[in-house]
Specification:
Layout: E1 3-5, E2 24-26, E3 31-33, H1 49-53, E4 60-62, H2 70-80
Antiparallel strand pairs: 1-4, 2-3
The structure holds iron/sulfur cluster (2 copies).
One iron/sulfur cluster is lined by residues 5, 9-15, 31, 53-54, 56, 59-60.
């Protein structure tokens, strides 16, 4: 499952450079996560780097419209690296 950034985002930009998949970018009003690229950090880290650095609790949440198993996330990471 990809993660997604919600409207509480304060556009601090801290998450963008932490993503191992270059999945995060600045959108029109808040930062956004490309669900095609996000692997929940599976393949790279044990914890989600964007969630770890974000200063706003609850700002980066599961994207329920893009659900994938751990195996699918690992395969997605492997395809891109
Ligand atoms: Fe990138 Fe990991 Fe955040 Fe997904 S969970 S957007 S892969 S830092
Ligand atoms: Fe927005 Fe959090 Fe990323 Fe900062 S770290 S840009 S508040 S999602």
């Amino acid at each position: 499952m990809a993660m997604k950034i919600v409207e509480e985002c304060i556009n601090c930009g801290a998450c963008e450079s932490e993503c191992p998949n270059d999945a995060i970018g600045q959108g029109d009003s808040i930062y956004t996560i490309n669900p095609e690229l996000c692997t929940e950090c599976v393949g790279a880290y044990d914890t989600m780097q964007c969630v770890d650095v974000c200063p706003i609790d609850g700002c980066i949440v599961p994207d329920l419209e893009h659900q994938e198993s751990k195996e699918e996330l690992a395969a997605k990471y492997a395809r891109r690296h």
